[in-house]
Write a structure and sequence with these properties.
The chain is 29% helix and 29% strand. By secondary structure, it is an alpha+beta fold. The protein has a domain at 19-168: Aminopeptidase (3-Layer(aba) Sandwich), CATH 3.40.630. The protein starts with a strand and ends with a helix.
Length: 217
């Protein structure tokens, strides 16, 4: 892995944030309770998938997730995939009875995010181990659901649910340059450029939760 540029350094914790309210409808009281928010996009339901059995519902979609990025960067996270799921907040979104997408938030602090591995390997001055730091990944939408409106609705519902459950201060992700352009639309900024063993370019994006929330209201 070759680091080509580190653009900015953060020295202070990101500000806390709050969500504008929407008419959520929660079904059930346990950790697997689902929520819908028709004010965002009608007919969508978010589900948190807490067990390996529950996560089987998104196994087909997850085959399209670009896991090769982490391998190309030499982060050696492949053997830890199940453990990452176990500590993560893994979500699915459905329209009617059909699974429309999946997304995972892995918390910092366990050494199991790609960003943490990058910092360890490069010595970059990035505070990815701050409390409330989450790596966003394994984002896949079903082919017939891929639209800006759907992505915005899904992120809004998923981030609101994450905030309801856990401390949330900042998000980060490793991405291709093309995916980074998408993340910039949602308040994340490129903080590091790098190349994998293949020579392919990748970036690390980082943003505080308040900025991300503003793009989703």
């Amino acid at each position: 892995m070759e680091i080509t540029e580190q653009k900015i350094q953060f020295t202070t914790r990101p500000p806390a944030f709050t969500w504008q309210k929407c008419p959520n409808r929660y079904q059930g009281n346990g950790p697997r309770a689902s929520t819908s928010c028709d004010s965002i996009m009608p007919g969508l339901t978010l589900q948190v998938l807490n067990t390996a059995e529950e996560r089987m519902v998104v196994s087909e979609l997850r085959r399209y997730s670009p896991t090769g990025v982490e391998d190309d960067l030499g982060l050696q996270l492949g053997p830890w995939e199940a453990a990452r799921d176990d500590i993560a907040v893994v979500t699915s979104i459905t329209r009617g009875n059909a699974v429309a997408g999946t997304l995972r938030f892995v918390p910092s602090g366990h050494g199991l995010t790609g960003g943490e591995r990058l910092v360890r390997l490069t010595g970059a001055a990035l505070p990815l181990d701050e409390p409330g730091s989450w790596e966003v990944g394994r984002l896949v939408l079903a082919p017939n659901e891929r639209s800006p409106q759907m992505l915005t609705a899904y992120l809004a519902m998923a981030l609101r649910e994450l905030k309801r459950r856990r401390e949330v201060n900042q998000f980060y992700a490793i991405a291709s340059p093309a995916m980074a352009r998408l993340w910039r639309r949602f308040g994340l900024k490129v903080v590091m450029n790098m190349r994998g063993a293949s020579g392919n370019p990748f970036v690390l994006v980082l943003g505080n939760a308040a900025d991300v929330a503003l793009t989703l209201h």
